[in-house]
Write a structure and sequence with these properties.
About 30% of the residues lie in helices and about 30% in strands. By secondary structure, it is an alpha+beta fold. It has two domains: about 45 residues; about 130 residues, Sandwich (Immunoglobulin-like). The longest helix is centred in the first third of the chain and has 44 residues. The radius of gyration is 28 Å and the shape is elongated. It starts with a helix and ends in a 10-residue tail after the last helix. The structure holds dinuclear copper ion. The site of dinuclear copper ion has 10 residues, from strand 6. Its main location: periplasm. InterPro entries: CcO_II-like_C, Copper_CuA, Cupredoxin, NosZ/Cyto_c_oxidase_sub2.
Length: about 190
């Protein structure tokens, strides 16, 4: 008799536990679906604030990224813009020169596949994609030499793809820029 009660009771316990797990799992699935729908709608309604596209096939022919326009340029507001191209397996220019204590804007694009942009000892870290212009602003505190390795696997020569970034004294930089003239684009490629 007591055995019968026991088995009846344990069957009830099992059913209750199973029900709880079922509710938990269904809830979990609903939450995941809701998250997917929410992020999908969120992205559709609020796309990245600015996307700048460019034709990778004509980079070298015309426009902002022609070879003579690559490197560091002083803007009228005193800030510096650095334009560069990433391609299998190098950056152009291979050595970037920027002043310390001045706002610097990097504008980079790729001529072929996805590359990485990273300046060691700084928080600059991005991807450089063909068809898009990647822009990042920063200010270097003090003169220093940094390495700039590609950190996205981009093919068999990936590990040999890197450039230098030389941060130099502001006055020296501005003097170099003045000497280079109006259309002067600075780099430290020798
Ligand atoms: Cu370019 Cu890895």
């Amino acid at each position: 008799m007591s055995n019968q009660i026991d088995s009846h009771a344990s069957a009830e316990v099992a059913a209750r536990v199973e029900r709880r797990w079922a509710v938990l799992m269904v809830t979990l699935v609903c939450v995941l679906v809701a998250m997917t729908v929410f992020t999908g709608l969120h992205w559709a309604m609020m796309p990245p604030s600015r996307v700048e596209t460019i034709n990778p096939a004509t980079l070298h022919v015309s426009g902002e990224f022609v070879e003579s326009n690559l490197g560091s340029a002083v803007e009228t507001d005193g800030s510096v813009t650095v334009r560069l191209i990433a391609q299998q397996y190098s950056f152009t220019p291979q050595c970037l020169v920027v002043p310390a204590g001045v706002p610097v804007t990097f504008r980079a694009t790729s001529a072929d596949v996805v590359h990485g942009f990273l300046i060691t000892d700084t928080n600059l870290n991005s991807m450089v994609e063909p068809g898009y212009v990647s822009t990042f602003r920063t200010e270097f505190n003090q003169p220093a030499d940094h390495l700039m390795p590609c950190h996205e696997y981009c093919g068999t020569g990936h590990q040999g793809m890197w450039a230098h970034v030389k941060v130099i004294d502001k006055d020296t930089f501005m003097k170099m820029a003045t000497q280079a003239g109006n259309a002067g684009r600075l780099s430290c490629v020798k």
